[in-house]
């Protein structure tokens, strides 16, 4: 049971350590619990507007009900009204972002590993959807690796997540252009399928390094998404199995009710046959060239830096 603690501030009980990452509303730092010596992550959120407080409370409320090994766990929450800051104490994830890891020059990416990562994303999503929660911001930056050696991943950032009642109409106007579904672009009813579209995009990028709907500007990207037209013509897909292509074809479908559900994804032949990973690729196994993926990650890093600057501007810190 997590209650929001107002009588103490995080520094009373935790030693704050190095910087781990920057989000829209503040920094994430590694921290050590003074009483137990346990390492965790402290995510700070600065509140400027009343709506932002409501949004963080929503994130906290949702995280409380999501206890699953593929989803980041929340341990504690501190609120400091005078400083207008909220601090979420989260499980520490040590392996960094999945896409950053797979582009490392010593990393050997194979289709089998992509299957393994995708199936874990679907497991986490399947649990969320069973709890009637939509993530609504699935993108590569929100998939972290548990450690620097294993292949286990976790879904993070429930900042845009929403409880979903299928009998009611939910519409949203947010998300990250490249990964949002057609119904978000056209401001129509969203649903479980909205998250599955993003899984399709993540999977396409992971296998090829190419972004299926990316245009020269956001307007063009939205246009491409609305048409839901994409192909596997690029040579990056030459060695990719038909099962993988079929998997993506069944997710990047314009009508959200016709997309596979998370549970159907786990039963799809591409993920069903998944064999446990081995440290070295199996004989005859094709290695995926991550040249394009490296370019993709560098471009996203730039985008993130721009977003971080915009976030600082929002706090009134101009450069
Ligand atoms: P965004 O702008 O992406 O919506 P946000 O404000 O919701 O961000 P997060 O995505 O939760 O913030 O965190 C920002 C970054 O901090 C992540 O991309 C990740 O690199 C790092 N990070 C977040 N949580 C953890 C954690 N528990 N352990 C390690 N690193 C983390």
Automatic annotation (TrEMBL):
Matches recorded under SMART domains: S_TKc (SM00220)
Claim: Repeat is one of the keywords in the record: no
GO cellular component: nucleus
PROSITE patterns registered for this protein in UniProt: PROTEIN_KINASE_ATP, PROTEIN_KINASE_DOM, PROTEIN_KINASE_ST
Record-linked Pfam families: Pkinase
GO terms classed as biological process: intracellular signal transduction; positive regulation of apoptotic process
Any one Gene Ontology molecular-function term assigned to this protein's record: protein serine/threonine kinase activity
Domain Protein kinase: 14-271
Recorded superkingdom: Eukaryota
SUPFAM superfamilies, per database record: Protein kinase-like (PK-like)
Keywords attached to this entry: ATP-binding, Kinase, Nucleotide-binding, Serine/threonine-protein kinase, Transferase
Annotated residues for binding of ATP: 49
Family to which the UniProt record says this protein belongs: Belongs to the protein kinase superfamily.
PANTHER family: MYOSIN LIGHT CHAIN KINASE, SMOOTH MUSCLE, SERINE/THREONINE-PROTEIN KINASE 17
Protein name (record): Myosin light chain smooth muscle-like
Native species: Brachionus plicatilis (Marine rotifer)
